[in-house]
Amino acid sequence: MLIILLTVLLLVGSIVVAAGKAGHAKRVALVFASAGLVISLIMLFQFRSGAEAQFVTSIPWVPSLNIHFHLAADGISLLLVLLTTTLTPLIIYSSFNKQIARANVFYSLILFMQMALVGVFTAMDGFLFYVFWELALIPIYFICLLWGGDGRARITFKFFLYTMVGSLFMLAALIILYLHTPNQSFAIDQLYQAHNTLSPTLQHGVFWGLFLAFAVKMPIFPFHTWQPDTYTNAPTQGSMLLSAIMLKMGVYGMIRWLLPTVPFGMDAYAGFAAILAVIGIVYASCIALAQVDFKRLIAYSSLAHVGLMAAGVLSQTEHGVIGAVMQMLSHGIVVFALFFAADVFINRTGSSALNALGGIRTSAPLFATSFLIVILGSIALPLTSGFPGEFLLLSGIFQFNIILAVFAGLTVILGAVYMLRAYQKACLGERRVGAGEFRDITGVEKTVFVIVAVCILALGIFPKPILDLAGPSVRRLLEISSQ
Amino acid sequence: MRYLISLIPVLPLAGFLILAFVGKRLNKVSAGVIACGTVFSAFILSLIVFMNANGNPTFENGMTITLFDWISVGSFRATFSFLIDPLSLVFLLVITGVGFLIHLYSVGYMKEDEGYNRYFSYLNLFIFFMTLLVLGNNFLLMFVGWEGVGFCSYLLIGFWFKNSAYNDAAVKAFVMNRIGDLGFLLGIILIFITFGSIEYASVFAQAGQMQPGGFVIIAITLLLFLGAIGKSAQIPLYTWLPDAMAGPTPVSALIHAATMVTAGIYMIARTNILYTMAPLTLQIIAGIGIATALLGATIGLVQNDIKKVLAYSTVSQLGLMFLALGVGAYNAAVFHVVTHAFFKALLFLGAGSVIHALHGEQDIRRMGGLRKLMPVTWLAFLIASIAISGIPPFAGFFSKDEILMHVYASNPMLWVLAVLCSVLTAFYVFRLFFLTFSGEYRGDPATIGHLHKTPMSMSGPLIVLAVLSAVGGLIGIPELFSGGNLLGQFLSPVFGQSALHLHLPALSHEVEYVLIGISVVVALLAVLFAMYLYAYRKEVSVTESSALRPVHNFVYHKYYVDELYQTLITKPLQWLGDKTYRILELKVVDGVVEWIGRFVVMCGKSLRLIQNGESGIYLLAMVVAIIVLIVTANF
Hints:
The complex is a heterodimer of chains A (483) and B (635). With 483 residues, chain A is mainly α.
């Protein structure tokens, strides 16, 4: 029931905000998003440990096709719902200093998107999953299109088209699975059994259909070229939604909908797909070295990190998949904070070009320290949130293939190079001539950074609750896939 | 007792947190008191634990204190647990003891600095991570300390963050360490896969049963050693350490001489049984050790920056310690870590006093004649120089002697090279000493007029360290001089398992006397030669016309290794990044996507011709589509 309550609340919130005055929009939206956080926290406390999916709601939706409105949450889903409900209020709050045109529409779209994301992470019916998957695309499309920077029409169109095409492959794959379920149903447990009657060739096809959709969404090399432009061009809150939450749809999709579904397909192609993911890690890290704009640098660093998560999932090991879940949470928080830092640069200097910054530390020590903590989270220093996930991912990949692990591990080195260089260029050295005083963070900015820093350290020092929550569910999915 | 032990890392952490959160509101005195007080208390606690541990069987086998589960997934379990045993105690005493002295010294040295409180917060954080490194009871917790001290090193090298060159040095140090850390990390994963655990006790017990020389154990030890290469500045990852001298001088003494850089030796001493089972790795370690020792010593001969000489000296001495590890003399290596912490910290702090007095001057060509002006520093520096040269009965003699004996027993050729290295060491350190303290002052007369006084907080630590450098060797007097080798006995439980496998050959007393005689005599000759050149003939640097000039230049430029790395790694990586972005990413990968997009649009335009509103065609298309669907559905 709680999941339904959560989605309905967010949907109502979205409508209320849209209908209300633009002046009140951000506050009303924050109230609804915070209420969502409260509900998900109640879910967390009511959750009984184990692999079982809980808070089940299953209502027949299209009886003729055996489609159910079936929402439920196991440990993995719950963690991603929590990520969504924690970050969305933060994303809304992070915009409090801004004057946004047509604010009611803007915030309404954010809430709508949050609703769709919760749906994606809790849908236990293939068709419903697809519906939420596509629903999530609509608000972010408009957010990028209406509030983006120069050249947004073309960039957003490319993004939309690219992900749409990916989704169509997924729909086709889901339909094939549906046709091979014992009782012609989209229920997830049924879809997991479809492989029994699927020919190996069709399994390969289904693998690629699902993989393409998820690969485009994350994105995985070489399906990523929509991403850097979109991240750079979108309004900051849009980039945050895309990178901090939306890309997790892809990783989550792989864990829930690909890994256990087509064992033959995984056997045949998981290795190849993992190679692509690892190439992406090295490729994106190298490109990040050459970036001079901080937003674009975040985009490529995100590409590298998500490649590691994908390779971990494709390794089909306990460490790899749990590491991916852990890293989704850490990456969500870190990348949100990185984009927020970029926003701080833009507010102060009008651009996020690293060459225009420098010496910020002198006048803004609090910002510089917060920024450094975020960067440490990003380069996975032990005791920050990035480390448990990165270690488990590398361990999982190592158990799958040693050579892949060595290449994937290059992110440990290259990540430190481009991130510390960015920090150096922005915060250290002398303040640039003519580049006025850089105000330190206060009020909203300070609050956001404090919350983020606490999360990064807390998850790094005590990741146990998360690993315990994800563990049973991950093991169950791996068992299904190995049957 | 358990409670006390847990407090050892917690105290400096508390100091860091206080300074980090309320540091702005504290004045310099209270910040200094908090920073020094926490480390001093940690030292006292370590001392109490040590007193209790001596001869106590619970400690000899290691006492474990588990705080909480950190990362556990399935059968993998990394806990926050401490292990107190003789090895961790020796390191704890050095870290907190020398650490406290350097904290105290910093009170005077950094007095004028505006980042005073920030400096002490970093220093406390460093002590926290360093104690964590030696206290962890599993590989992953060691890695936490390992990366943590690396991060503190990054912060402190770039402490004066307005200077871009310093920041570059900080990033360089962190990145080169991370190259090693990747090896370490993969090594930990391989350990887990091989032994099913990352806890020392379980891993070592299983390793002792293994067949020596197996492929997996060699892979594990080499991966871990890669970490040690980075952290302890060995070939090929040593170039960050000389650059790290950008940090304040006490930092160079603490982090880049006495403690952090010896973490690599700690790691191998801790995991000695793994290395004992991998003779090939030991040989590689010995080779890299002696090569680094000679490389560092030769470069040290010709540097003119007082801190650079000491930095290369550290590289060289660390090489010597790895040589000891490589011949299986784990105990000797740890012994040298201890004495080296005394005399190298002293050399750096002495250099710091000189730099402080001369308003930041670091070039020894512009020093000289400081003996009368700075008598305490002069004496301290002299004692440290004798100690590092291996002249009896100072501290360095005993530890170096123990290393040389084992090296000779293992391979006399290596011994010749090691003695050559001590000759070079004695020469460069006394070149430094005479150029700094004897003769006439060669710098700016204005500076000498008002030298900065060395306050008590600075000369106090100098005196204590000078005493330790003089008599610190007593903890390990070998049996040859009817000593009990207290340190060796204390540490023997840690290396006991290895001793069963290693069978180090013993030398007869006559051979030992001859070897000691040779090494001491040649070291003395080197000192006399340095005295002749720099005190008597008052040479300052190699003259233009000298035949040695080209060689000198080649060595002076550090064999152009930095330039080599620039050309071979840094520049190509930048080039690769740039080209990958501009060509592969924008033209090829995205180009294909755009091309497909255009192709589809083109098809769309052609297909539009069909969509002419003729409903018959639509109907036909629909029927065809339905048939296709039905056919494929039943396929």
